[in-house]
Amino acid sequence: RAKRPAGAPDRKLARPVGKIGVVGAGLMASQLALLFARQLKVPVVMTDIDQARVDKGVGYVHAEVDKLLAKKRISPDAANRTKSLVTGSVSKEAFADADFVIEAVFEELNVKKQVFKEVEAIVSPECILATNTSSLSVTAMAEDLEHPERLVGFHFFNPVAVMPLLEIVRVPATDDAVLATAFELAKGLKKSAVLVKDAAAFVVNRILLRLMGEVTAAFDEGTPAEVADNALRPMGLPMTPFTLGAMVGLPVAQHVQESLHTAFGERFTVSQNLQKLIDNGVKSIWASSNGAAEKGADGKPFI
Ligand code: 3HC
Question: Residue limits of the 3-hydroxyacyl-CoA dehydrogenase C-terminal domain (predicted)?
Answer without folding.
Answer: 202-281
